[in-house]
Amino acid sequence: MVRLSDIARRPLCSLALLLMAFVLEGAVAPVSEYQLKAVFLFNFAHFVEWPPTSPPAADAPFVIGVFGKDPFGTTLDEVVHGESVNGHPLAIERYADVAHLRSCQILFIPAAEIAHLNEILAALKDSSVLTVTEGPAPRGAIIDLLREDSRIRLRIDLAAARAGNLTISSKLLRPAEIVGAGS
């Protein structure tokens, strides 16, 4: 039996496996929505390229932040436990306040916090933070996790990614709906 932690440790194949798991509905052991979203967040760290200054110090952790009420419980912590990204240990931070958001590389904004999205995006302006929301969300967030029936679909705003000086791998773009691509 494949465990969630085993899937998370193979970033190149885990995203594809997770997408297939929702297509093959019922063919795999049940995984909760937030277990799946935790693995998505872990994998985004491997499929997005940040500017060299993020994280700023060689020994600084790579931080996945959760804004507002945390829907993951301990799941996100379990997925990233002992993992690293480009030599930076992964860490989870929870933020109740918009003022401290710049200290993370990925920020998950739960559906319950979408009403604060404009305020959050304003606080993150000119920073390289990958914003991930539960959708549908208004434009401006970089990745939107859209739930359709028992599947999760990705919507990626390329203009928002460019504004944050982030480069998203084609492996992540292929299965996603692309918005804000421009010319």
Short description:
This protein has 183 residues and is an alpha/beta fold. Helix content is 31%, strand content 25%.
Provide tags for this entry.
single chain, 10 strands, globular, 8-stranded mixed sheet, two-stranded antiparallel ribbon, 7 helices
Question: Your description of this structure?
Answer:
- There is one protein chain.
- With 183 residues, this protein is an alpha/beta fold.
- The chain has one domain (4-179): Rossmann fold (3-Layer(aba) Sandwich).
- 31% of the residues lie in helices and 25% in strands.
- It has 7 helices and 10 strands.
- Helix 2 packs antiparallel against helix 3.
- It is globular and about 40 Å long.
| Annotated CATH topology | Rossmann fold
Q: What's the level 1 CATH class?
A: Alpha Beta
Strand numbers in spatial order across the main sheet: 3-4-2-5-6-7-8-10
Query: pLDDT below 50 for ≥5 consecutive residues: which ranges?
Result: 15-27
Helix percentage: 25-40%
Q: Spell out the helices and strands N to C.
A: HHHEEHEEEHEEEHEHE
Distance, first to last CA: 45 Å
Q: What is the 3D form? A: globular
Q: Any idea what the CATH architecture is?
A: 3-Layer(aba) Sandwich
Largest sheet report: 8 strands, mixed
The CATH superfamily name is Response regulator
Structural class: alpha/beta
The count of DSSP E runs of length 2 or more, i.e. the number of strands, is: 10
Based on CA atoms alone, the radius of gyration comes out at 15 Å
What's the total helix number? Answer: 7
Mean of residue pLDDT values:
84
State the domain count: 1
Please report which band the strand proportion falls in: under 5%, 5-15%, 15-25%, 25-35%, 35-45% or over 45%.
Answer: 15-25%
